[in-house]
Amino acid sequence: MSNGPVNTGTEAAARVADVLLLFTGGRTYLGVSTIGRELGISKAVVYRILQSLVSREVLVTDPDGYRLGPAAVALGASALRRSDARTAAAPVLRRLRDETGETTTLSGLVGDERVYLDQFESGAEIKMTVEAGRRFPLHAGSSGKAILAHLPEDRRAAVLSGELGALTERTVTDRAALRDELAAIAEDGVAVSLGERQVGAGSVAAPLIGPDGEVHGAISVCGPEHRFSPDKIERYRELVRAATAEIARNWAVPPAASGR
After folding, report:
1. How far, in Å, CA of 140 to CA of 163, rounded?
2. Between 20 and 30 A from 213 (CA), which of 6, 7, 20, 248?
3. Nearest to 112 by CA among 57, 142, 72
4. What is the model's pTM?
């Protein structure tokens, strides 16, 4: 009899975990019926779990169903900040900052958005800095577009079918134009933004592909737009391509084996 409450508690925790894991499958919204059917549990139980998660902002609800909330995003960002990707990227981003004289950043994919995980600030008096942990849409800015262009087709289509808000007057919100641009980015491997996410900011970014072959984030060189001349942009294109390739190699090697 003493094992009953423990087993019941373990089963309840497993159900909560199973519900949350369904949201990692690429679908933005899920409903009570869908969750109950896929997990084989009653809608009443699903509803109680969902309401508990909503009360803690792990999930939020709107007319389309339930989706990951700010607490879940914060947990994901915290995990990513401690990931091997950040360790692998740090020395490369530091050197890239020194080579370009501009701020370099690491972004991570969290749900259908991205967050800045790390930055190495430019030594220039006038420079770009970013806010770690803040969420940004994928359709605006070079880092977001580099990620979006390399997502699986179904996830990319889901993002493009959602709201595409204009962060500045240069943000591309036309879906057809954005699809064409993303196709070019996927082929080239580099995205460029001039004032699309933030007025007066320029950036060049490349996707960060993990050992599993999936895109997990992006790195960028960013700074004041007036310093991003065509010649500089072309130079930064080559540098970020090389940097992401090096990070991917570092990421694939366990820290003990790589000597770090």
Report:
1. 12
2. 20
3. 72
4. 0.69
